[in-house]
Amino acid sequence: MNNEPKYPFDRSKFKDVVHYVCAQCQPNELGNVKLHKILYFSDMIKFVSTGKPMTGVEYQKQQFGPTARYLSSALRELKNEGKIKIEKRDYFGFEKTDYISIKSPQPGLTNEDVQIINDVIAFVCQRSAREISELSHNAAWDAACLGENIPYYSAYGLAPVEVTDADLEIGMR
Predict the structure, then answer these.
(1) How far is CA 93 from the centre of its chain?
(2) pTM value?
(3) For the chain, first and last CA: distance in Å?
(4) Partner residues linked to 66 by β-bridges
(5) pLDDT digit string (tens) for 80-97?
(6) 165 burial class (0-12, 13-18, 19+ CB within 10 angstroms)?
């Protein structure tokens, strides 16, 4: 049982982030796995930089990496509001879900949030779903048992622990 403080879940902001991600990504770049990982890494990076998560959503440890609680309901709400459409298709013998924004997201995110999300999108969408799942199996992911919530403080385990010569050079500038 972890003793992490409860961070408030901002459902409206969570939906804003989900809609923004859907609007920024091409449908062929974004599926269920990548959407979960973009949300996870964005929240964790924001937590490390400010001490508070971006959305406060709970992330649960699952076999293929962290998953955002309430994502299915947020997607359903965005679809019912006419902001996105959700399509399923065959992808090399597997079912892939495409998330397509059909309305521009309303500004509800800070410039810092947008920058973090854009950086994470660029990182995640350059990799396959399998690669990004493997990358999410790190020290932060190891902080919980399967099915448990991953504590936000575990985000400090996302940073590399080995200091390289390049790191030292940057630090000495």
Answers:
(1) 26
(2) 0.84
(3) 43
(4) 61
(5) 999 999 999 988 888 889
(6) exposed
